[in-house]
Amino acid sequence: MRAFYRGYHAATGRRAAQVRRLHVMRETGRFAGKQGLCGTPGWGVTQSPAVILDPLPAEPPDGLTWCNACVGHAAFLVGVLDDTVAAVAALHDRGPKPGTTPPEGRCGRCRQTRPLFSFSWMPDGWMEFKEIQLCARCHSLSALEDEDGQLDSGPLLEQIGATR
User: Fold this and answer.
1) pLDDT tens column, 84-103
2) CA angle 96, 99, 101 (to 5 degrees)
3) Residue 19 near residue 5 (C-beta atoms within 8 A)
4) Is 13:67 a contact under the CB 8 Å cutoff?
């Protein structure tokens, strides 16, 4: 297996600050040797050549971290994904539990400072989902507006527009 990261400038060979991930190179299928297992392009462009590391290093170079998606795909390809999942599950059971308290902020509907939950809907005639942070009360009220399998976003949009 090989790895790569994006270089930045062909003349200086220095890496740009936005280059942070080390990707595992795809060796089979379409774009073999030119793409990461996560789909990140690995071909060079005019001022940003790909830096290929052959063989795959045990540690990423200074300033880089592993691409999580590539590592997961590589674990599957070499047959250790099940063992890795079991190890992560065992560590998770022993370690501290992440907090389940939602972040506090200003509700997008009632404008009160409360714990917030993400609420998404697709307004009629729109082609993309909209998302807003709502408190538990407003979240449940907005969910009740969905009586026919489709969210009636009119009251929600009116309430949001009236409070801004």
Assistant:
1) 888 888 887 776 666 667 78
2) 165
3) yes
4) no
In one letter, which amino acid is 9? Answer: H
- Cα(60)–Cα(20) distance, integer angstroms: 10
CA distance 122 to 150: 9
Closest CA to 121 of 104, 109, 111: 109
Q: What per-residue confidence (pLDDT) applies to 149?
A: 45
Note the pTM of the prediction, 2 decimals: 0.52
**Angstrom distance (rounded) from CA 161 to CA 19:** 40
Site of tokens 């807003």 = 132
Asked if 43 contacts 32 with a C-beta cutoff of 8 angstroms, the reply is no
Tell me which residue has tokens 């390809």: 77
Vertex 155 angle, CA 151 and 159, to 5°: 130
- The alpha carbons of the chain give a radius of gyration, in whole angstroms, of 23
Burial 23-45 (b: 16+ CB within 10 A, else e): bbbbeeeeeeeebbbbebebebe
